[in-house]
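Regression check, phosphoric acid mono(formamide)ester case 332:
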Amino acid sequence: MSNRQTEGLEQTSQRGPDGSLRHLITLEGLSREELTDLLDLSQFYVRQPGELPARDQSLAGHTVANLFFEPSTRTRVSFELAARRLGADVVNLDMHSSSRVKGETVLDTIYTLQAMHADVLVMRDAEPGLPTFVAGHVQPHVSILNAGEAHLSHPTQGLLDALTIRQHKGEFGNLSVLLVGDLAHSRVARSAWHALSALGTGEVRIAGPEHLLPAANEFPGAVRFTDLNKAMKGADVIMGLRIQTERMSAAHIPDNAAYCREFGITAERLKLAKPDAIVMHPGPMNRGVEITGDVADGPQSVIQAQVTNGVAVRMAVLATIVRNAQAQRKYS
Ligand code: CP
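Current build output:
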């Protein structure tokens, strides 16, 4: 038996008995109205660097546990800040010094935290299906928030990307959004796709080397390019994606310089997009590979705004999930 006990994975709904979100595992299936509500609440929590951060007591008395079985800087720190700014107690489990290294299963780790009254478990893991599996085994008052699931889903990243686009570009219906790079292994791209589709984005383009593009039946309706110069023409938003070397065999890892020549977002290429196009990247960036430093730090880059928005989005998601859980307790 796998240490992670995911055999016999069953589909678990991320919705409670009243139909509202009890967990957040994927953006797939969320309506335009639900996404817009989350973006509006996120915008309410946005503060610019230099301003005091937004705070309230939406999570007072609640405990949030961060369980990151894969590395993270932005997502882990922003979930912690978000939970603290909403008045929660926060636990960060260090996986390298936890009892996981002694062979404890994920479920036993989850049950242990649940027994200590953790109400929200924020999880990142390389195993597809793990958040859904865990959500099927926790007590009714416990919520699972997916902070990155293999190549499949990174819902709060999808929300912060949508929020950043809305802040800079307004209505999605008028926009041409280009996702470029290693889409095959990218949970960021999949969650962006779910959000952009539901929000009615005018056109989504995907570009990259053929072997790093997703299967033909994924991203239905997106326009595929293997020539980045063609893909850039007239784009309003360009989102670079990291090459996920940790999810591919050595034989498929491209040469950095050759990759940058063909698929890097460079200042020269950026001139092909609309003059007011914005450049995004979820981070961490490989400068000089998928994006050059002058573009990442240049006037069209909104990469730091994405990071700032990450805290606001995670506050909105935590507040919404806990509010829904409280309402569902009354309902059941
Ligand atoms: N974008 C993102 O998920 O970054 P981290 O891996 O640093 O959390």
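Comparison notes: The first strand starts at residue 63 and ends at 68. Confidence is low (pLDDT under 50) at residues 1-11. No diff flagged against the previous build.
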